[in-house]
Design a protein that fits this description.
Blueprint (H helix, E strand, L loop, with lengths): L1 H20 L16 H27 L5 H34 L3
Helix pairs in contact: 2-3
Length: about 110
Amino acid sequence: MIESIGSLSSALAARARNATETDAAPAIADTSPTGVTFTDFVNSIGANFADSLKSAEAKSMDGMLGKASTREVVEAVMSADQTLQTAMAFRDKVVSAYLEIVKMPI
């Protein structure tokens, strides 16, 4: 997940540099989407969350079958817990933003 955020921030920084370097931009902006969209970013985060939880579940099953050490199982479960906490915080922020938008007068 941190790699996704890092790649998004580096893409945005590169785009900002390109925008400042080309002061003579055309009058009509290009409407074709370039780079990473917010939808793609959220989808990749969701996929990363699901993959982390699935790998922790698989590692837990391996631990019960004796194929993985206790340390590996604990690391996988702790990683899944951190992923779940991050997903819940993201969800809370989205819901909070939605509620603020709903409260706005029209």
